[in-house]
Amino acid sequence: MELQELVLKAEGGDVAAQVELIERRIIARQYEDAWLWANKAATAGDPTGLYCLAVCYLHGYGTKVDVDTAQKIFQTSADLGYARAYTGLAAVKMLKEGENFSSEILALTDKAAAAKDCKGLYLKAMLYHYGMGGAVKSECKYFSLLSEAAAQHYEPALWELACGCLDRKTVAYNPERAIALLNEAADLSSPRAIAMLSYIAMNNEGVNPAPGLEVIKRAAALGDPDALFFVGLCLLNGLGVEADEKKADLIIREAATQGSHQAREYIDNIEKEAADAEAIKLEQEILDETYDIANHGFPPAMTQMGDFCRTGVIVKALRIDRDLVTAADWYRSAADAGERKAAYHLAVLMQKGVEGLDNDPAEVERLFKMALEDPDRSPDVAVDYALFLWYNGRAAEAEALMQKEVADGNAHAMAQLAVFHLYGHGVEIDYDRAVALATASSDAGCVHGEVALGWIYRDREDEGRDLAKSMEHLQKKTEQYANSLK
C-alpha cells in the first residue's frame, strides 16, 4: 500500500492501517510519529494497537523506556488473543534475565510462532541461531524460521536472511536472493537495507561511488548502526571519499557499540586475525629457538623437536609438515642421551612400522622399559607396552602389567584391561568385569573408558548388548575429545 493511502486510512481510524504505519515509522526510525500513532491505535482497546504501544514503552520509541508498563500492556494484548504479544513478553524476560535466558523465553516465542506470527518466527529463529532460551543451536532451523518470517515482509527477518545469503560459510548462501531481500526491505524504508544496496553498488566497476556514499550517510543519520557500519567501510576502502583507516576504525567500533552485529563480527574477525598472526610469530620463535638448542645437544630440546615433527603442531596456531622419520631421528638422539620420554615415542613409532625405521622387537622392548622408569611418565606408556607384549604373544605378561597399573590407579589401563576381558585377549571373557573396569576409567575422566564402554555394549554376545548405550558412550568420547581441543 502506498504511504499516502496508508496515512489516509490511518487518519480515518483504520487500526490495521495505523499498525502498519507505526511499523513503517519504526523501521524508518521516525519514533515520535510512531509513538503518536501507537497511542491512537491503543485508545480503542484493540490488542494490536496495545501491542504497538507496549513496543514503544519497551524500546523508548518517542517516550521514556518503561519495561514494567510494557510488560503489563503486552500481557493485556496477549490476554485479548494477540499472539505477537507473547514475543513482547519474551523480550521483557530477556531484558530482565540478562544473558541467562530461561526455557520460558522459548515457550513464549513458541506461542507466537505457532500462530505463524512473523515476529514470533523471527525471535524463535534468533534463539536457535545463538542456542539460547532452551533452544539447541541449529543453522537449518534458524534459516527456515527466518524464511517464514521474511515471507511476511518483516524487515528484521528480511535483513537477517539477506546477510545470511551473502555469507559463503552458511547453507543459505545465495547472493541473488540477498539482493532481492534487500530490495524488499528497502521498499519498507529500511535504512540499513538501503545502505547495504548502495555499498554493494559502489563496489561495482565503473560506478561513481560518491552518490552512494551520500545515500549511506543519510541512512546513518537516522540513527541506524548498520548504516553507520557501511559509512566506516567506505572510509576504510576509499569509496566516494579519501581512505582514512583511523577514522574508519572509530566509526565501525561506534556502530558495534550501537548494536550493529555486522560491525561487531567485523571487529571480532580483525582482532582474531591479528591475534593469530601474533601467535604464529611467537610460535615460530619457539620453533627456531628449540631447533637451535637441540642442535647444541640439549636432550629435552631434541625430544621437543621430535614432538613438533611427529604432531605438526608447535603450540596451537603454527602448523608444520608432519615428518615421522625426522621425528624418530630426534627421538633417537634424545633417547641415546637418556631422555625417557623420547624413548617411549621412538618405541611407538618403531612398533607402528614407520617407513625407514627398523622394527626390532628387542630394541622396542628396551625403549619401553626405559620409558617405564620415568617417574613422570604418561599413563599411556604402560598401556602401549602391554599391547606390545600382547602382540608378541606374551599375553600373561601384558595382563600382569595391566593389573599392576590398575592397582596403581591408571585409568587408561583400566580401559585397556576392560577390552582384554571383552574379547578374551589373554584373559577369560568377563563382561561384568569389563563394564566395571571401563566405568571406573570413565568416572576418572578418561576418554578411553568411554571408548571401552562403547565397544562393550556394541560387541558383547549376551543379553547385555545395547546399541543405544554404545552410541551414547562413543558420542561422549567425541565430545570429550572436542572439548580437549578448545
Could you provide a short overview of the structure?
The protein has 486 residues and is mainly alpha-helical. It has 26 helices and no strands.
Give an account of the 3D structure:
The chain has 486 residues and is mostly helical. It has helices at residues 3-11, 15-27, 31-43, 47-59, 67-79, 85-97, 103-114, 118-130, 139-150, 155-165, 175-187, 191-202, 209-221, 225-237, 245-257, 261-295, 299-311, 324-336, 340-351, 361-372, 379-391, 395-407, 411-423, 431-443, 447-459, 467-484. Helix 1 (3-11) packs across helix 2 (15-27) and helix 11 (175-187) packs across helix 12. The longest helix has 35 residues, at 261-295. It starts with a helix and ends with a helix.
Average pLDDT across residues?
91
Largest sheet: none
Tally of DSSP β-strands: 0
Report the radius of gyration as a whole number of Å: 32 Å
Head-to-tail CA distance between termini: 52 Å
SSE ordering: HHHHHHHHHHHHHHHHHHHHHHHHHH
Strand content: under 5%
Secondary structure tally, helices: 26
How would you name the oligomeric state of the polypeptide chains in this document? Answer: single chain
Tell me, briefly, the overall form.
Answer: elongated
Percent of residues in helical segments? over 70%
In the predicted model, the low-confidence regions spanning at least 5 consecutive residues are: none
